[in-house]
């Protein structure tokens, strides 16, 4: 069952989600919720979805970056983004640690803000500790695009959206991005946008 994705402006996206209790994690309700989130993510399509995005104020997120989503990127773009397929997995009550500075900047979008993208500086390397759907503790050390996805989704659990971290002058419609910026290298984008006014956030990490 596909679930409606909350849009920017809805309160559920701006409140911190609560941790799940251990007994909740094994419940039928949470397993059904994960199944519904996975269907919704595939239908969107997207690479990550947090429970607040479907109206559930819970510290729960799913991630899956399929190879087919990367088919329209050149080998050079994949290398620059350090992007490769990531299998489906569940994060419950995640804690994230940034292991590098917020010095990797690419355009980023969100299913809760369809049709728009902006350049967002992220850490290249992160460590995440969480529980999976079987209540087992997991630890992930991720680099590149996978690290970006993790940051984006965990931000959602704190009520933070990419627009809070973006370079404001880079905010763009997807159509304009495709026409003017998609083919540009990271160095070219930095040269164009870096000196323009943008908000700087204290980076308590988080998406």
Q: Count all strands and give the number.
A: 8
Largest sheet: 5 strands, antiparallel
Number of domains: 1
Radius of gyration over C-alpha positions, nearest whole angstrom: 16 Å
Q: What is the strand arrangement across the widest sheet?
A: 1-2-3-6-7
Structural class: alpha+beta
Q: How helix-rich are the residues, as a percent range?
A: 25-40%
CATH architecture: Alpha-Beta Complex
Q: What is the assigned CATH homologous superfamily?
A: Peptide deformylase
Strand percentage lies at 15-25%
Mean pLDDT: 92
Order of helices and strands: HHEEHEEEEEHEHH
Task: Explain what the structure shows.
- The protein is globular.
- The protein has six helices and eight strands.
- Strands 1-2-3-6-7 form a five-stranded antiparallel β-sheet.
- The chain is of the alpha+beta class.
- The chain has a single domain, classed as Peptide Deformylase.
- It is an enzyme of class 3 (hydrolase).
- Belongs to the polypeptide deformylase family.
- It catalyses: N-terminal N-formyl-L-methionyl-[peptide] + H2O = N-terminal L-methionyl-[peptide] + formate.
- InterPro entries: Peptide_deformylase, Peptide_deformylase_sf.
- Pfam families: Pep_deformylase.
